[in-house]
Amino acid sequence: MINNILTFEIEDKFNNDDPGQNDLIKKSRVIPNLIHLLDHLDQEKARATFFMLGTVARKFPEVAALIDSRGHEVASHGITHLPLKGMPLEKIEFELLKSKEELQEVIKKPVRGFKSADKYLARKELHIFKHIAEAGYNYDCSYFGHGSRIEINKISKILTDKGNSLSIIPQSVRTELVFHIRFGEKVRAFPTWFVDSSIRKLNKNGQAAMINMKLWEIDKFHPRPAKSEYINFSTYGNIQFAEEKLKLLLASYKFVSCSEFLGLNDEKPNGIPI
Fold it and tell me: Rounded to whole angstroms, how far apart are CA atoms 97 and 91?
């Protein structure tokens, strides 16, 4: 059975709604949701990468420690959940370096991976990928390749002028006619059969799928505005079915973390020391 990649973004819904804002007075649901999720992963012997916000790590250092102690990978999702596109260089470097520093302080291990808070980064954001590599990360999961001349669903590597390298794990895409559908990022929104057949198609071609979910998506009781699933389906639609979809996928496929997939667990971290 082929290894597929499983990742989660460790954040509350309000981290998406008000990025960069002080969330100390807001009630977090991260810890109960995480424990519930880790039990599911243990039951199916799945391993995953958890992209964690620096603000969450600062508020709940025990969360990063718990993820690591349960055999999963802790990776960076930045500090503020602000998009990197259009961000000044000094702020990009802060997002990359400060989040890495805070996570490594908790788990006492290299943090190898990064995923931007942007919906995706494309080829025109190559300069951002170079900064990610120069900050000492080994891989990134922010890339979405689209266009007729772009090879999708293939891991690639870039080299910087300073000698650092970065493996780019692309968001998993299903192509229908001329449309590239990011099924790996929208598990909750798409029918289970669509996600299942998309993974099977990739695996049949010898390619791995990368499935990514936000932690709050598996919380069917997550507070939300009345009738919000009808007003904004992409945000809240099918949230009551997300956990069951994930359980079905865990039972059907083998999932590993990004570092395990890339064979990085026994290698030294890229670039700067911890």
Answer: 10
Domain ranges of the chain: 3-171+245-262
pLDDT in tens, the chain (274 residues): 899 999 999 987 665 555 544 454 467 788 889 999 999 999 999 999 999 988 888 888 999 999 999 999 999 999 988 889 989 999 999 999 999 999 999 999 999 999 999 988 988 888 899 999 999 999 999 999 765 455 788 899 999 888 899 999 999 999 888 788 999 998 988 999 999 999 999 999 999 999 999 998 888 776 665 555 545 555 665 677 788 899 999 999 999 999 999 999 755 555 443 2
- Residues 90 and 47: beta-carbon distance below 8 Å: no
**H or E element in which residue 126 lies:** helix 126-134
**Largest Cα–Cα distance in the chain?**
52
* Assigned token pair, 204: 């049949």
Instruction: Say what the pTM is.
Output: 0.88
Q: Does domain 3-171+245-262 have CATH number 2.30.30.240?
A: no
